[in-house]
Design a protein that fits this description.
The structure is a single chain. The chain is 38% helix and 25% strand. The protein is an alpha/beta fold and 173 residues long. It has a single domain, classed as 3-Layer(aba) Sandwich (Rossmann fold), CATH 3.40.50.1010. Strands 4-3-1-5-6-7 form a 6-stranded parallel sheet, sandwiched between helices. Strand 6, helix 6 and strand 7 form a beta-alpha-beta unit. Helix 4 packs parallel to helix 5. The protein is globular, with a radius of gyration of 16 Å.
């Protein structure tokens, strides 16, 4: 059985999923605020039967009453959060990079890196994983993945056709 490292950029996955949902539902605003990530379904879909070495989800700190992160933890993710600054998210991509590289270089044998983000900031992570003998999979919504990042990964798996599998709608009847 393959072993895998799953790294999730929560904001990238969440916002891009909301954008795709808004487009499909022909909403007049750019994001469908009723769409939410189903963390358990996302983890099952991405793992696809592999032995998970680590599943790391990194994002910005939500309001104190938000159950988002406890839901992610209950689904099997290690969660790390950072406060948003006035200039936006800071440290999220760096945390994903550091957490990923730590596993890649310390794990006794290569596995499969499954990265859920489209940010080109992750080009060094994909390159280091590749050079360490790891297979690389890039998971994301098609409109949010850097073309340069796509070219570097062994496989690109689009979440577009899995929108209703990895997410759910809140407040819709």
């Amino acid at each position: 059985m393959n072993e895998c490292l799953i790294l999730v950029d929560n904001s990238n996955t969440f916002i891009c999923g909301q954008e795709l949902s808004a487009k499909r539902r022909k909403l007049e605003y750019p994001q469908d605020f009723s769409w939410r990530i189903d963390f358990g379904a996302l983890l099952r879909e991405v793992a696809n039967g592999c032995q998970i070495i680590k599943a790391l989800l990194v994002g910005s700190t939500p309001p104190p009453n938000d159950s988002l992160w406890s839901s992610a933890r209950q689904s099997g993710f290690e969660v790390k959060t950072y406060e948003r600054s006035l200039s936006g998210e800071k440290a999220v991509d760096t945390e994903i990079m550091a957490g990923g590289l730590k596993v890649i270089f310390k794990h006794p044998r290569p596995g499969v890196l499954k990265l859920l983000s489209g940010d080109r900031d992750f080009i060094p992570l994909i390159r280091e994983a590749y050079e360490a003998g790891w297979e690389t999979e890039l998971w994301g919504f098609s409109h949010c993945i850097s073309g340069e990042l796509q070219q570097m990964a062994h496989r690109v798996i689009l979440l577009d056709d899995m929108l209703e599998v990895v997410g759910r709608y809140e407040g819709l009847k």
